[in-house]
């Protein structure tokens, strides 16, 4: 297990903000032990400009990011996922595809920053808050003692991470 790279898929309905941010964060904080992906049940077709701005301000590369369907990851030849996290309540309530490899799943709901309207400062603050909340959860996740947790204990830990109110 020590040399294994775990594939992690972040799901949201539109795959334009929260799931994209999760993908970037796991790739940074996972330090080669985790490989992040993101997708949506009904992808918007583009990454939200404020999500890109938040990521750029934190020195993340954004050039290869794209909004895509979760169907890509249920196809033959797709990378087998070890973990699948829904980050929006809508995606958590939808019937997900059958993922190859039977990944461990959990819901890590984060308020949708793209739903915030009006003042540009408030809108940017919502994206920054989503970034911080996901970053805190991912930092906890990547530091779990994977070698000493069986599947049931790991599932419980992942659910607990999703229940935490972080980044306030």
Automatic annotation (TrEMBL):
Pfam families: LMWPc. Residues 6-144 form the Phosphotyrosine protein phosphatase I domain. The keyword DNA repair does not apply. Signal peptide: none annotated. GO terms for biological process: response to arsenic-containing substance. The keyword ATP-binding does not apply. InterPro entries: Ptyr_pPase (IPR023485), Ptyr_pPase_sf (IPR036196). CDD domains: LMWP_ArsC (cd16345). Keywords: Arsenical resistance. PANTHER family: ARSENATE REDUCTASE (PTHR43428:SF1). This is Protein-tyrosine phosphatase, low molecular weight. It comes from Nitrosococcus halophilus (strain Nc4).
